[in-house]
TrEMBL record:
Protein name: TetR/AcrR family transcriptional regulator
Any Pfam family hit: TetR_N
DNA-binding residues: 33-52
InterPro entries: DNA-bd_HTH_TetR-type_CS, Homeodomain-like_sf, HTH-type_TetR-like_transc_reg, HTH_TetR
Native source organism of the sequence: Actinomadura logoneensis
Record's keyword terms, sorted: DNA-binding, Transcription, Transcription regulation
Gene3D superfamilies associated with the record: Tetracycline Repressor, domain 2 (1.10.357.10)
Keyword ATP-binding in annotation: no
Domain HTH tetR-type: 10-70
GO-annotated molecular function: DNA-binding transcription factor activity; transcription cis-regulatory region binding
Stretches that traverse the bilayer: none
Length: 203
């Protein structure tokens, strides 16, 4: 049935997802078929069907795994008051998450925006990004600070694909994007303190 069946099921699924993302990046989601994914892996279509019936199943599994990690981060972030230090740690943890397969998923989203717009996993991912942004800066913050939170997250996302052609290492890209995100989010704490001072009754 092909080499794909030789390893453990979890390893096999990872291999399929990795190869699928490679092909989606090379030729686009719509133009890639399950047959091509199977051929790249050196297995039959039937062997691939054992794990995933459709391309959307492959993408959904990637988004589900990523979504679970974002949900865990959001739950942890809500356990502490959102001070500047806590915001920094939330962003650091999210940036670290994007260093793994999630980074490839962000690249896929950028390259296949039209297709993702029509897929439910894409809708769920966008909802999670908004939730994470609201954790960093909510309705108590100024509009500017709420936008800062969203742009700080986008800085981490876009570094994955906008810096792809730059002659830098993944570590350099990661550190630069994180520094930009930190500069953006640092203003949110100043904005909230200013808003609190304005609301405080005069003595």
């Amino acid at each position: 049935m092909g080499v794909i069946m030789g390893g453990r099921r979890g390893d096999t699924r990872e291999q399929i997802r990795r190869v699928a993302l490679e092909l989606f990046a090379e030729q686009g989601y719509e133009k890639t078929s399950l047959r091509e994914i199977a051929e790249r892996l050196g297995v039959t279509k039937a062997a691939l069907y054992y794990h995933f019936k459709t391309k959307e199943d492959i993408i959904a599994s990637l988004f589900d795994e990523f979504g679970e990690k974002v949900d865990e981060l959001v739950a942890w972030a809500r356990t502490e008051p959102m001070t500047r230090e806590h915001r920094v740690e939330v962003l650091e943890r999210y940036a670290e998450l994007l260093r793994g397969p999630a980074g490839d998923l962000m690249r896929f989203m950028s390259q296949n925006q039209q297709e993702i717009r029509d897929l439910k996993p894409g809708e769920d991912a966008r909802a999670r990004f908004r939730t994470l942004a609201r954790v960093l800066a909510d309705d108590r913050d100024t509009v500017i600070d709420q936008l800062r939170a969203r742009v700080s997250i986008m800085a981490l996302h876009t570094s994955v694909f906008l810096a792809h052609d730059m002659d830098i290492s993944d570590d350099e890209r990661h550190e630069a994007a994180l520094e930009i995100a930190m500069e953006l989010i640092g203003g949110a704490d100043r904005g909230r303190r200013a808003a609190e001072r304005e609301e405080r009754p005069a003595s």
